[in-house]
Amino acid sequence: MSTDTVTPLRQRMIEDMNARKLCAGTQRGHIRGCKRFAAFLKRSPDTATAEDIRRFQLHLAEASLSICTRNQIMTGLRFLFRVTLRRLDLAADIYHLREPQKIPLVMSQDETRRLLAVAGNLKVRMLLSLGYGCGLRAGEVVRLKVKHIDSAQKIIRVEQSKGRKDRNVMLSPEVLDLLRQWWKVRPSRHDAGTIREERWLFPGNRSGKTMSTRQLNRLFHEAADAAGIKKGVTLHALRHSFATHLLERGTDIRVIQALLGHDKLDTTARYARVATGMIAGIESPLDLLSRPRKKPKKNRKDQPPS
Predict the structure, then answer these.
(1) For the chain, which ranges sit under pLDDT 70?
(2) How far is CA 190 from the centre of its chain?
(3) Set 123, 239, 240, 245: catalytic member
(4) Does pTM surpass 0.85?
C-alpha cells in the first residue's frame, strides 16, 4: 500500500469495499487516506501500532488540513483497521472532529436569472437549468438518460443517487422545452448503436461515456464570471438556491425534503437559515417598541346601561 502497485493488503481492502458496495468515489477516498498513512509510516499499515495512529493524527493537525479532509483520511483508516485487518483495538483509537456548521451559500433570484441568461449555448443553459430548476446534483445531471424523462407525468426520475436512493423531481414546462430543443442538436456519433432509452442526454467524447462533472463545474464557473456574480458560489449553489427559493415561496418543507432526497428533515431545515426573503420579512421586536400601544377595547358587558 506504500507504492502504486496493488499490494495484497490493498487488494483485500478493495474486495472488502466492493463486497459492501461502496461507491467508486468513497473507495478512492479510503485508498488515498491509507496511502497517506503508509507514506507517513514508511512501512505497511498492517504493522501499525496505537502510538503510530496517535502520531499520525497529530501530524495531520500540524499540517493545517481542513477538518473535512482530516475526517475523510481517518474514515479510510478506520475501514482498514476495523474491516480489513480486524484490528478493533486500533480502530478505537481513531477519532473524528466535529465539522463547523456553515450556512449554504445561495444565489438570489436575480443572480440566477443573470446566470441562465449568459449561458454560452443551449447545452450550458440546459445543464444549469436542470441544476436549478430540478435541484439536481452535478452527478445526477450528467448521468441522466432518455428513460429518466417522463413527459407524460411531468417528472424526472433520479436513479440510484447519493445513498443508493431513487427519487422523482418535477419536470417544468420550460425544462421540457429546453430538453426537446437539445435533443434535436445533441451529438449522437458515439451512441448511434445504443437503444434510444439508454442514451445519455449529455454524452462525453468517448463511446458509452457521459460528460464529466469536472466539465460541468467549469461551464458553471464560466457562466458565473460572465454574469458578474462576485460571491464565491459553486455548482452546488444551484441546488441550494432551488431549495431556498421554494421555501421562500411557501412550499412545504417536507415536499422540499422529498425533492432533494434528504433522509432527515433537519438537513432540509437548514435552508430556513438562508431564506433571506423569509428572514427579511420578519418584524423585529425593536420596531414594535416605537409603536403606540393599542388601548384594550372595553367589553360590552362592562358598559353601564344607557
Answers:
(1) 1-5, 295-306
(2) 29
(3) 239
(4) no
